[in-house]
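Thread: quick sanity check before group meeting

JM: Hey all, I'm pulling together slides for Thursday and realized we never actually wrote out the predicted structure for the chain we discussed last week. Dropping the sequence here so it's in one place. If anyone has concerns about the input, flag it before I start.
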Amino acid sequence: MNTDQLTQASPRGRLREALLGIGEWGDVPEADLGDAVTGALRELGRDVLGERSRVGLVTVGTEDDSRGRRVGLRLADHDAGLPDLLWYADESGLPSEVRESCPTLSQEEWEAGLLVAKLVLTVLESEPGPVPGPVPGPGFEPVPADVARCRPHTPRPARSRPRERCCRALAALAERRDPHPAELTAHLRTTLLEFASETPDNKEAVQHIAVRSAEPSWQGARWCLGRSGCGFTQVLLSAEGWAVPSGVRGEFPDVTQEEWTAVIQVTALVLLAFEGGR
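JM (edit): ok, ran it. Output follows.
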C-alpha cells in the first residue's frame, strides 16, 4: 500500500486503496490495515452521509476456520462478516424505502444487487492464510477480536489469480477516465463469475449489474441495475431505514438496527469507492 498515494487521493481513492490493501500479500499487521480502512470509511461517510453515518460500527477483523485465517470487513462487536450478513438478506423483500426512491426497481434486481454486493465484499477479503498457534480442530471457537489483535502476526498470502483479476476489474471502474461501459460490464461479470463460480444464481445475478458512463459532471463509470437503470449505490443508501431482515435476525439475533444500518451504509460506500469520481 502506497502511503503517499493514499494521502494525495480523494476520500474515495483512499478507501479504494485501503480496501485493496486488505487482500495484498505482505506483513502489514491487521491493526494497521484496519486503521487505514476505518479512517477512510469514516471520512467518506462524513462526506456522503453526514450525521447519519454509522460506519464506525464496522471494522477490519479476522475470521479463523478450518480453511485458515481471513481478513475482511466485519461488525466490530459481533463475530459476523459483512458478506455473511448480506447472504441472509439475499431473499428479503424489496424494502418500502427503496421502492419509494426507485419505483422501477424489481424484486429480482434487488436480490441480484445484494448478491453481487456480497461477492464484491468477499473479493476484497484476504485469501485464507495460516492461523498463529494450534491448528483449528473439532470444537474450535473463533478468537475474540481484541485477543486476535495481540496475537503473533503472520503474513497474508497473495491473492489467487481469480481474486486478483476481479480486484483489477473493480479498480478499472474508478480509474479509467475514458470508460467503455459495455467492455467494463462484460469484464466485471466475467471476473466475478470466475471468482465466485458459475452457479445459476450467480450467472443470473451478474446479468442485472451494468457499468454505465457517469453524468457529465462525473468522470468514469458507475454501478447500475441494468433493467431499471437505477444507480446501485443510491439504491443501497436509500435502504438505510430498512428493518433488520428476518433471515439476518434468525442467524444473528443480537444484531441491532443501528448495526444493520451500518452494514448497508458501508456496503454502499465500498461500491461508491469503485465508481468514477466527480
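AS: nice. Residues 99 and 105 are 7 Å apart (CA to CA). The two ends are 24 Å apart (CA to CA).
JM: adding both to the slides.
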